[in-house]
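quick one: S-adenosylmethionine bound model?
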Amino acid sequence: MTVPATNTADLLRQASAHDFDGDESTRLATIREAQRLINRLQHLTERSWELAFENWAVLGIVQTFVNLGIFERWLDAGGDTASLETLCGLAKAAIDPKLLVRLCRLLAAKDFIEEVAEEQYKPTAFSLALGDRGSLQAGWIQCGHDHFKYGGLDHFSRFLQETSYRDPVDGGNTAYRLGCPENLDLWARCSLTPELQTSFSEMMECWTRGHDISLFRARHHAAIPAGSLVLQDRPEALALAGVDLDKIRIMPHDFLTPQLVRNARAYMFHAVFHDWSDEKSLVILKHTAAAMKLGYSRLLIADVVLQPTGASAFQAAMDVSMMGLLSAKERTQGMWEELLSGAGFKILKIWKDPKRYESVIEAELAGPDGGAHSQ
Ligand SMILES: C[S@@+](CC[C@H](N)C(=O)[O-])C[C@H]1O[C@@H](n2cnc3c(N)ncnc32)[C@H](O)[C@@H]1O
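yep, here:
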C-alpha cells in the first residue's frame, strides 16, 4: 500500500512521547524506527552533511548559548516568545545581533527553538530544560565540551592510527590524553580543576537521575540503621555528591586499594567497570571479594551488558565513548562471566533493562568449590 506523502507527514507531526503512556520499550523502538525512516529518506549527501557539518555546528551554538546564560535567563524571564533584541539583552556578554540571528537560524532549523516570525523566537521544552540548572541538561552539554570531545572527534581517529588500530586497553594511554591540552587523564583533570569535576558529576547525576544510594535511602528510610549506607568515590567527586548524611556515610576510597568496609550485605558499583580494562577491573573486584562474607555478601554491578547482536545505539556509543575517554569498554554477558569468575564470583542473575541501557548483574562469591552459597 502506498501512503500519500502528505498523510505520512501529518501522522508523524501528531505523534508525541505522551502517546506511549509510560511504555518506554515501545517509545524507544518507535524512535529507532523513526531514525531508520530518516536514514531511508535522506539522500547520501544529506546524511554526510548532517553528520559532518550540522551536528558539530549545533553543539557549538548550544554551548555558546549556555556560556552566555541565554537559556537560563530566558527561562527566568518567563520563557515567552522573545525578539532577537531581547535575546541579545539576556546574554551575559555583549553579542552582535547580526551574529545571534545566524545562530538562532540554525537552532530553529534543528528544533531547539521555534522561529515564530522574523527575528521572533519561542523556546522549546528542550531549550527551557537547558536553562533549568535543576534539570542538569546544561551540565551534560558542558561535560561534552569539557571531556567527551577530547575522547572523540579527530583525536579519536588519530589515536587509533597512532596505536596501530589495536583495541585500546591501557588507561594511561587514551585518545582523551592525546586530545586534552594538559595531556592528563580524565580523573586527574577532574581532580585538578573543580569546574571539570562539576560538569562530569552533573552529567553523571543527570544520567543516573539522582544517586542510587539516595534513592535507596528514600525508599527504605525507616529500615536503615544510621551510617549503614556507605558512599565511596574520589574525594573530589564525593564533595559534590550532595547526599543526606543521616543514614549515608561518605568515605573517600581508591578502589584499586584494599576495601575497608568488610562483610557488607551488598557492594554496588554503578558505571564503574566500564571505565576500566579487565586487568584493573580484576584488581577492584579482588579487593571487593576479599572484603565480602561468603554466602552473605552480594555484588551488584549496574553497567551495560552488550547483546551479542543488535546492541542499542546507546550501548554501542557508550562502549566507543569509554574507548575514547579511558581506553576502556562495555562488556557482553560472556565477557562479564569471564571477568567475574576470574575474581572468584558467580553470577546469580542479570536484571535486564527492557530499554537496553544498563543492566544489573547480581553475583556472589563462588567459594572454594566454585559453587554458590546463597543464604
Ligand atoms: C562513571 S562515574 C560513576 C559514578 C557513580 N558510581 C554513579 O553511578 O553516578 C565513575 C566514578 O569512578 C570514580 N573513580 C575513578 N577512579 C577511582 C578510584 N581509583 N577509586 C574510586 N573511585 C574512582 C570517579 O570519580 C567517578 O565518580
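The domain at 42-134 is CATH 1.10.10.10 (Arc Repressor Mutant, subunit A).
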